[in-house]
Amino acid sequence: MFGKIQATALALILALPMAAQAAKVKIGFVNSITGPEAPIGENLTNGVTLALEDLKKKGIDVELVKEDDTGKPEKSMAAFEKMATRDRVAGIVGPYSSKCANAIAKLAEKYKTPLLIPVASKEEITRQNLKWTFRLSATTYDYATILLDMATSLGKPRTIAIINENTDFGTSGAKSAKDYAGKKGIRVVAEEAYAPGSPDYRSTLTKIKSKKPDLVFMVSYVADAILLMRQSREIGITPQAFLGAGAGFATVSFAKEKAISSNVFSSTQWTGDVNWPGAKEFNRRYIAKFGKEPTYHAATAYESMMIMAETAAKAGGNQEKIRSALKSGKWNGIMGEVKFADYEGYTNQNKHQMLVEQIQNGVHQTVYPPKYVSKKPVYPFPGWR
Amino acid sequence: MTIFLQSLISGILIGGVYALIGIGLTIIFGVMRVINFAHGDLLMVGMYGTFYLFTLFNIDPFISIVITMPLMFLYGGFLQKVFINRILGALPQNQILLTIGMGLIMSNGIMLAFTSDYKILSTDYSSSSFDILGISISTPLLISFAITAGITVVLYWFLLKTDTGQAIRATAQDREAAQLMGINVKRMSIIAFGLGASLAGTAGALISPTYYIFPQVGSTFTLKAFVITVLGGMGSIVGATLGGILIGVAESIGGVYFGSGWKEVVVFVLFLLVLLFKPSGLMGKSNT
Amino acid sequence: MKPLFKNTTGIGALPAITGLLVVVLLFLFPRFVENTYALHIMILIFISIVMGSSWNLLGGYTGQYSVGHCAYFGMGAYTTMMLMQFRQIPPWLGIWCGMVAALVVALIIGSICFRLRGPYFVLASIAVAEILRVSALNLKNITNGAEGILTTEIPPLKIGGALITDFSSKVPFYYAGLVFVLLVILVTWLLQNSKLGYYFQAIREDQDAAHSLGISLTFYKNVALSLSAVLTSLAGSLYAVYVGFIDPSTVLALDLSVQIVLICIIGGIGTIFGPVIGALVLVPLSEALRSNMIGESLINSGIVKADSAFGSFLTENLSHAHVLIYGVLVVVVILFMPDGVLGFAKALAARKRKEVV
């Protein structure tokens, strides 16, 4: 009984029709389509959809194998194995979250299948000397450093309070901020890691207010960013600047809440008004197609898919050739200049330029570094209206 | 001192909403002895209802509860009639899994229909507050606390004074005896689940203006509702009310004095202590 | 003193031979199948069987429905990974420490939760697991908090200088999983035919009656929990070393506890092969749903055109709906197969036999 059922189950897995090997390039895309990360995963999916349109215009027909990892590492592994061994894709783009990227980076090495990670930002991923794993985005450390660099160039902050979501991205972001603040001579007066999803942060914020920090640094996902700022306003915290490390603070829904979002800074991988080739055009097309503004996740996914598919098409699907082309290649698209380099312990890591945006009048404006500025930054925080 | 008072007050205010969630769960448990793992998802459905009433028809969340409440009542009654009533005699773990399955269907059905985007319901008073002696009090939370108190009073009256209410209480006390006395137990179960669902939905509506909405929002509240219900004594409405406020305060004060990361532990340890020393809950009869 | 384990039932020759054959085939499996995707699925199935069967000892045989079993899974996973990553202790030693850690936690939890019955026990078990999860999140110095633990390297297993395996392929994990599965099935089988198992089932059927027969409720419930916890930790350790990354939200999550219970309920609780069936149904099914194989095969086989409305619905929407389908399945099973797939199959077979006669 046991054996029979086992055999049928296996037959079910193995005997499902193998997709025919087509002449066009076959690219895998693993992403969090369902599960807790789904709201952000959707942006990546949209970015890839636009990339496929543009690739078609360039005469590259991509056969996309889309896999859901539900935000769980073992599922992303299954997805990777399936794409590498059953679908035999030329290369893989994704996944969204760092924990899934961690789990499959080693598989890329094993199957000699190039993996291009668009936006998962944990440092370790590209620090394991893996030859087949490439990363487009900057790492978590850069989310914190660019903000503190900006704050110290605009004013003289002496103290900082760090509030972060108690998740992977949150903790490592807070750790980087603490580390870099130490280097810049800024004293950390409060550190609070909160569990996401709580409706009430007032007590924590009151405690922070009593410490009178010059900077308030926050790492939060979409909705908690709004909650924290609403309640900061209620409590009346007025530092020199509110600094948000990407994620929730870089979203459109946050910017729209003018009462609480005005003058908040956020570090980001990409903005809709940056002068990188095609960025503004991408922004416009994305809004037209999906009815909302793209996040940096969408832009990184778009660019990753463009790079992977073009390289794969040129290399005729040969994976060794794709890898060396990715390694030696140079691109200049909506994410600015892209080059996968080895430096400071990193392997195949794009030295991506982070940006700082500030919400002015409900719109994200690029305010730092000076080279990319679209509006002048408002500093210090002028107070609540 | 300001910090302590501030956390106490905001804890009590948020605790009012928790209480409403707990009362809903406790009624369901009292009458049917089923732990409803889909309770948070009912709350989530209520939130989506409120959100669309607000964005499509511009009905204020605090006013739209007169629409959400009866709708959620019907929805809960429907779930009870079609699904849960079929397995009332089944093993408890099957009942638990059934509610888990229903929860999955609700949250993922909503996700298919409205995407997994976070929805923010922004009213012009969403972040308004006023100051008393240096303590800021959130206006929307104060309003929702008042509404919660009102609903609880009406509920007491209903359960104590009306025939249906008394029948529900009788069913909760002893199912078989109630049946023998000629009470339609299945009907009472439908009413009880309807009531539970409508209270959960109302709680969802009340926190919508200050919170955010997404398909998986329910799970945090399901866990909280469990804690509240056990704290107060399963089936006890007074207990759930107290339990809700207690949890709100414990979270708020625990967050300040143990760090925000540990506030959940404070809540769960409190929960275990009550289970250990007074397993029947703060307001339950000690006959377990 | 009577022996606790005593085999009272003989096994028929036919089932014994079939069983042996299946085991031999499973041992030979990696030699013939090189497809790592299939191996991956097999390993996941093994892990699921181990956790399901372990839960079954407590939930199925003793009737104590713990919905916090991720606690023991997590203890195994965390102990093994922490020892390997921070103390350079190889996993085949760490796994024992994981078992001890799970045992300690089980004894603590048992002493608290077994004073409670029924729904109170269910909720208390959830609470304890949640305390562990939040602690793992906050004790950053020990567990690395939310950032989780990533394996950099698994030391190669050598016995007397001879290299047994360097863990570079899936095969060692496959065999480890298979051995664990055989172990839990053996334990379950021994238990079912022993006095201890009889005590467990007596507690499940009627606690008060069992008590009046002189069976110490607290003692035997704790024995069942300890056994169950120690075996669950094996699944956790294997998962952690195999996947190479753990964090509180994957190995100490309520989701996981629910899944463990689900494996048993779907298969059929209180039977040796219930959890096996449950895992064999759930793992391939959730994988097929996740990777949208059903929709894909419908399109590839030409039944549905890829560019038709239904085709695009299958590829675009169904991939989002797999958890929904999963939920529907749970509800359907509970409503129509309350004794699990195994119970349902038995009932069906019994009815067939009647019809023939």
UniProtKB/TrEMBL annotation, chain A:
Name-wise, this protein is: ABC transporter substrate-binding protein
Family statement drawn from the similarity comment of this UniProt entry: Belongs to the leucine-binding protein family.
What Gene3D superfamilies does its record include? 3.40.50.2300
Q: Which SUPFAM superfamilies match?
A: Periplasmic binding protein-like I
Write the signal peptide boundaries: 1-22
Is Signal set as a keyword in this record?
A: yes
Is the keyword Hydrolase in the record?
no
- The Leucine-binding protein domain is annotated at 24-361
Listed A to Z, the keywords are:
Signal
InterPro entries linked to this entry: BCAA_transport, Leu-bd, Peripla_BP_I
Pfam families listed in its UniProt record: Peripla_BP_6 (PF13458)
UniProtKB/TrEMBL annotation, chain B:
Q: What is this entry's stated membrane topology? A: Multi-pass membrane protein
Q: Share an example GO biological-process annotation for this protein.
A: amino acid transport
Under CDD domains, the record lists: TM_PBP1_LivH_like
Please list the GO terms describing molecular function: transmembrane transporter activity
**Keywords in alphabetical order:** Amino-acid transport, Cell membrane, Membrane, Transmembrane, Transmembrane helix, Transport
Q: Where in the cell is it found?
A: Cell membrane
Annotated TM spans: 12-31, 51-75, 96-115, 135-159, 190-214, 226-249, 256-277
Question: What cellular component terms from Gene Ontology apply here?
Answer: plasma membrane
Q: Which Pfam families match?
A: BPD_transp_2
Q: Which PANTHER family match?
A: AMINO ACID ABC TRANSPORTER PERMEASE PROTEIN, BRANCHED-CHAIN AMINO ACID TRANSPORT SYSTEM PERMEASE PROTEIN LIVH
> What is the similarity comment for this entry?
Belongs to the binding-protein-dependent transport system permease family. LivHM subfamily.
According to UniProt, the name of this protein is Branched-chain amino acid ABC transporter permease
- Taxonomic lineage of the native organism: Bacteria, Pseudomonadati, Thermodesulfobacteriota, Desulfuromonadia, Geobacterales
TrEMBL record, chain C:
Keyword terms of this UniProt record? Cell membrane, Membrane, Transmembrane, Transmembrane helix
Q: Which InterPro entries match?
A: ABC_transp_permease, LivM-like
KW Cell membrane (keyword) present: yes
Q: What is its main location?
A: membrane
Q: Does the keyword Coiled coil apply?
A: no
* Protein's cellular compartments: Cell membrane
Q: How does it sit in the membrane?
A: Multi-pass membrane protein
Annotated TM spans: 12-32, 38-58, 93-114, 173-191, 223-246, 258-283, 323-345
Q: What is a single molecular function from GO for this protein?
A: branched-chain amino acid transmembrane transporter activity
Which PANTHER family does the record match to this protein? HIGH-AFFINITY BRANCHED-CHAIN AMINO ACID TRANSPORT PROTEIN BRAE, HIGH-AFFINITY BRANCHED-CHAIN AMINO ACID TRANSPORT SYSTEM PERMEASE
What this protein is called in its record is Branched-chain amino acid ABC transporter permease
Q: Which organism does this sequence originate in?
A: Oryzomonas japonica
Give the lineage: Bacteria, Pseudomonadati, Thermodesulfobacteriota, Desulfuromonadia, Geobacterales
